[in-house]
Write a structure and sequence with these properties.
transmembrane transporter binding, 27% strand, 5-stranded antiparallel sheet, 3 domains, Jelly Rolls, Peptidase_M60_dom
């Protein structure tokens, strides 16, 4: 009975003072046998526990919480619960040796040591996964684990990486149904979780699925949990599920929900509030699609206009400036999959394939006029690979800074052509006759130092883009003179029209 476990852990604790000298992270509590012990007003978890096999786990969101006298009552309860009545030895990692003095005051046997066979409870930080397999076995066989640490600093140093999947401590904790997230939270005084119903990711997801199935609008408590559920779902879906039935089962639940309800329509004329079921479904659909090589399972779209034959384009793989996008003039329709073939010489050279140009993340917006995240990027890790994007988008090859690969032929199957005109290179007659009528919904107009990305409907009437682009070229030349920089930029600037941006 997890409620009895929580009651034991919080016995005699009326307040959890987390002002312990460090900025904590937050936790994702996603296991069937994991449970929160401290929630803030936004339902973010700061302390949690879990059962796993025959053992038990307690997690804090900063290591300083594990030896703070302010939390002595809670820590003694935690060690007692983890010990499960054995009255065994508590092993404390050297980085937490201050905990030993706190335990000795309560006459709890402890010693500074690494994980060893004669200890009942092991206390350590979350900054290393060196002993991951040993810790998993230790807990499964009945041991107790007390772990603490924050992941926000790791996240700040590993941009683009999901802390929930890659942070060292989570390589240990994920299996227990607990994960330390890469966001920070406020170090403050919080009430402990009380008896009765409170937020838990699995509980909220089940309620969401049930109410959608009954065609209900969200009611309390789900209504107050929706925003937290949406954010937790996005985090959870970064955890690899291929070798874990517990995770895969949640993926199946989400897939069923989305297939049953469909993906909500969102646009300038049909905006969606951030705390609505529609916003939750949009975020779930995006997150789930990123775990799939083929997002067709989530969206049924006609393949009309998709070119079955391979299209080969050549991109410039030399880049003296910062990371640069190279346009392919191709578009991947929503829900479809493209197969990208590259020369073996560029595999592992830092190139990426990107679908979509609208990189602004709207996850924090109060109202949505498009899905919060609508691009997908993957490394060129093999000669032939598939990429799918739920929302579709123009296909780019992202070239890293200082790349010297020269011209690189890229072959794409499963895409449609997009209108593309570059001043001085594209044939004006071909533009007028066919290029401007290519079926993709987005088009690009380019000069040497600038690329404009606009809806195709806004250029199909344009018989000749040369006068417009000549003006833009003059503007960019004037900018280079004003800035006293070389006339040719290291990479072209880009202007991308978007129905909504995150700032401004």
């Amino acid at each position: 009975n997890l409620s009895l476990d929580a009651e034991f852990l919080l016995r005699g604790v009326s307040e959890l003072d987390l002002v312990t000298g460090g900025t904590p992270s937050t936790l994702l509590v996603h296991g069937a046998l994991s449970f929160p012990l401290c929630l803030d007003r936004s339902q973010r978890c700061l302390l949690a526990a879990a059962r796993y096999g025959r053992g038990r786990v307690v997690v804090a969101t900063h290591e300083s919480q594990l030896f703070s006298p302010k939390l002595a009552g809670f820590l003694l309860n935690a060690v007692s619960w983890l010990d499960a009545g054995r009255k065994g030895l508590v092993g404390v990692d050297p980085s937490l040796k201050k905990l030993c003095s706190l335990l000795s005051q309560a006459e709890v046997k402890s010693q500074v040591s690494q994980l060893a066979g004669d200890i009942s409870v092991y206390c350590c930080t979350s900054y290393s996964d060196r002993d991951a397999e040993r810790i998993h076995a230790f807990v499964a066989e009945g041991g107790g684990l007390l772990m603490g640490g924050q992941a926000w600093y790791w996240a700040s140093q590993n941009c683009g990486e999901a802390a929930v999947a890659k942070y060292p401590g989570n390589r240990i904790l994920n299996r227990f149904g607990l994960s330390i997230l890469g966001q920070s939270s406020q170090a403050a005084k919080y009430p402990p979780v009380g008896p009765g119903e409170h937020y838990h990711f699995r509980r909220a997801l089940l309620l969401f699925s049930t109410q959608l199935q009954g065609h209900q609008e969200p009611t309390e408590p789900l209504k107050g949990w929706l925003q937290r559920l949406t954010q937790d779902c996005a985090a959870f879906l970064h955890i690899p599920a291929h070798d874990c039935p517990a995770y895969a089962s949640l993926h199946r639940i989400l897939t069923k929900v989305l297939k049953r309800t469909g993906i909500p329509q969102v646009s300038r004329h049909c905006p969606v509030k951030s705390n609505s079921k529609e916003a939750a479904l949009l975020c779930m659909a995006t997150g789930l699609s990123l775990t799939m090589t083929d997002s067709a399972a989530l969206v049924q779209k006609s393949a009309a206009g998709v070119c079955a034959l391979p299209i080969t384009v050549e991109i410039d793989g030399t880049n003296p400036g910062k990371t640069a996008w190279r346009s392919t003039g191709l578009y991947l329709p929503e829900g479809h999959t493209a197969v990208i073939t590259c020369p073996c010489l560029v595999v592992g050279a830092g190139l990426k394939v990107q679908v979509g140009c609208h990189t602004d993340d709207l996850s924090q917006a109060k109202e949505l006029k498009r899905a919060p995240v609508v691009i997908r990027t993957c490394d060129v890790a093999c000669q032939k690979q598939s990429i799918s994007c739920l929302w579709g988008g123009l296909i780019y090859i992202v070239v890293p800074a200082k790349s010297v690969l020269g011209n690189v032929p890229i072959t794409v199957e499963g895409a449609v052509r997009a209108p593309f005109f570059k001043l001085g290179e594209t044939c004006e007659r071909q533009w007028e006759a066919c290029i401007r009528h290519y079926p993709a919904p987005w088009a690009e107009l380019a000069v040497e130092n600038l690329i404009l990305t606009v809806p195709s409907d806004s250029i199909r009437h344009m018989e000749n883009p040369r006068p417009l682009l000549t003006l833009w070229n003059e503007i960019m030349v004037a900018i280079s003179k004003l800035a006293a920089i070389p006339a040719k930029f290291p990479r072209p600037e880009r202007i991308v029209t978007d129905v909504q941006i995150s700032c401004g």
